[in-house]
Amino acid sequence: MDRKKELKQQYKETKIEAGIYQIKNTKNGKVFIGSTRNLKTLNGKRFELNMGSNTNKELQREWKEFGDTAFEFEVLEILKKKETGYFDEKKELEKLEEKWLEKVKPYGERGYNREKAK
After folding, report:
1. Where does the GIY-YIG domain lie (predicted)?
2. Which range of residues forms the domain containing residue 81?
3. Cβ partners under 8 Å of residue 22, min gap 6
4. Is residue 10 situated within a structural domain?
5. CA angle 60, 108, 23 (to 5 degrees)
6. Is 61 part of any domain?
7. For residue 111, how many other CB atoms are within 10 A of its CB?
8. For 107, phi and psi rounded to 5 degrees?
């Protein structure tokens, strides 16, 4: 098999993992907690911020102010998928994100997330 076909096959076989990630400003310690159904898309988040098109205005402003080298991306937890029975990935990911938001409390002076109205 030629190298191109080999890489294509490898890509198809790579497991897509959902999970929780954090973008941390190393200059002021503020964090953004987010979730994604495909952790491979984190490079897309960096690209969005570099292009100035991220929807989180405060995070975008500070990205521009401090530069991309002031920020670290980290996967906090990978969603464990149930092997049998029904599994609502979206709902389970939301629960996992809530757990991390509760734990880290990245609001106000501590972060870029907004508290959800109860």
Report:
1. 18-113
2. 18-110
3. 31, 32, 33, 34, 73, 74, 76, 104
4. no
5. 45
6. yes
7. 22
8. -115, 160
> For residues 104 and 20, what is the distance between their CA atoms, to the nearest angstrom?
12
Q: Which residues pair with 72 in a beta bridge?
A: 24
Distance CA 49, CA 65 (A): 12
- Considering the domain boundaries, does residue 6 fall inside one? no
The dihedral sign for the CA sequence 49, 50, 52, 57:
positive
Our count of domains for the chain comes to: 1
pTM of this prediction? 0.83
Confidence of residue 117 (pLDDT cuts 50, 70, 90): low
Distance between CA atoms of 114 and 56, rounded to whole angstroms?
10
Q: What span, in angstroms and rounded, lies between the C-alpha atoms of 21 and 30?
A: 14
- What one-character-per-residue DSSP string does 48-107 give? HHHHT--S-HHHHHHHHHH-GGGEEEEEEEEPPPPSSS---HHHHHHHHHHHHHHHH--B
Closest CA to 42 of 62, 11, 65, 20: 20
Decide if pLDDT at 106 tops 90: yes
